[in-house]
Task: inverse folding
């Protein structure tokens, strides 16, 4: 195998006030203190109540674990000095996007001007996983095969059942908000890297986008790094769940390269069918299962995870991440974050559910730190 399969994780967090549990803008000094310790690994996000982090390029999931733990702990420590706490959740349970302020940064000012109301509703946080693939031709060959598994990754990551105090009935409401943006959703299939460059280059030449960093598909070749980048996942409240999903992503990529080395490949299905599984993952998370197109049946999600563990055992062993992937069985049993949040909300009772969910999310953020 020629690829490095390095891994990198980007996460977006929300800041909440420890008295009201509502969203709070980062005060003067918080970002500066975090950047003094973490340098370019931390940055402001679109809204002032958000912070974005990114791990270093890591060879293994264990290396990513150490770095991600350090990043989360640093932000939690500095936020606490301002009576704030970070939570890693895709949507805040009750705060209103209309009350949030924008970060004063040229890129974000331009984004608001370009997208207007669509951008202003972007009170959402995701997790992006980069897997190192050095060859552009290989990146493009793997993309339509890896797209089959995007609904599986989404279902396992679902952490946004609530929006502005309401239970949306969805496991990932974040995706409903994000899909209002242009250039989102499942990636198209390209016959070659040259076709991809011609297609995206049309928008660059017309001045619509400056580069492919403004192509926001669920899966894309990174504009800045020699990686494939999955962008479909909700951010994870628990560190270990984030690492398990990242490990799954890394092992899937290695498995597809392993097949290619044996003159095999994963079957490519029409985006119409994959979109149906994407919707099922967005709506139900891990609770209702996905369509197995080969068997032409809806399979329970627990069975699908068991199959993935078997399928990827060789790759996970080689990458040193089999225990991380096996952890996904526990994610299914707990209903993923969306299920856990709903359980906390129901137990707290009417009028207290939102604050109880935020307390729960704060506790999960600090697990293992």
Result:
């Amino acid at each position: 195998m020629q690829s490095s399969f390095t891994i990198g994780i980007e996460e977006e967090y929300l800041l909440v006030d420890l008295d009201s549990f509502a969203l709070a803008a980062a005060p003067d000094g918080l970002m500066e203190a975090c950047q003094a310790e973490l340098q370019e690994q931390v940055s402001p996000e679109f809204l002032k109540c958000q912070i974005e982090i990114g791990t270093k390029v890591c060879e293994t999931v264990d290396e990513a674990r150490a770095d991600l733990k350090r990043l989360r702990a640093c932000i939690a420590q500095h936020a606490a000095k301002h009576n704030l706490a970070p939570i890693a959740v895709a949507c805040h349970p009750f705060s209103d996007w209309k009350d949030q302020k924008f970060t004063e940064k040229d890129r974000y000012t331009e984004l608001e001007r370009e997208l207007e109301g669509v951008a202003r509703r972007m009170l959402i946080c995701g997790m992006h996983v980069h897997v190192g693939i050095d060859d552009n031709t290989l990146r493009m060959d793997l993309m339509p095969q890896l797209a089959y598994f995007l609904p599986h990754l989404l279902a396992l990551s679902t952490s946004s059942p609530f929006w502005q105090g309401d239970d949306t009935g969805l496991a990932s409401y974040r995706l409903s908000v994000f899909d209002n943006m242009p250039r989102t959703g499942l990636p198209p299939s390209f016959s070659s890297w040259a076709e991809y460059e011609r297609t995206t280059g049309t928008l660059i030449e017309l001045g619509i986008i400056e580069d492919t960093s403004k192509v926001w598909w669920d899966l894309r070749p990174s504009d800045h790094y020699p990686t494939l980048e999955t962008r479909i996942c909700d951010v994870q409240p628990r560190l270990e769940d984030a690492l398990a999903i990242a490990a799954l992503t890394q092992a899937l990529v290695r498995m597809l390269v392993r097949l290619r080395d044996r003159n095999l490949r994963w079957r490519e299905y029409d985006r119409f069918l994959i979109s149906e599984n994407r919707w099922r993952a967005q709506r139900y998370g891990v609770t209702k299962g996905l369509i197995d197109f080969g068997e032409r049946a809806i399979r329970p999600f627990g069975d699908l995870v068991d199959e993935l563990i078997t399928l990827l055992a060789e790759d996970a062993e080689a990458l040193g991440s089999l225990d991380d992937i096996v952890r996904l069985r526990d994610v299914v049993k707990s209903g993923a974050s969306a299920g856990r949040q709903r359980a906390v909300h129901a137990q707290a009772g009417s009028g207290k559910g939102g604050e109880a969910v935020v307390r729960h999310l704060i506790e999960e953020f600090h697990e293992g730190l």
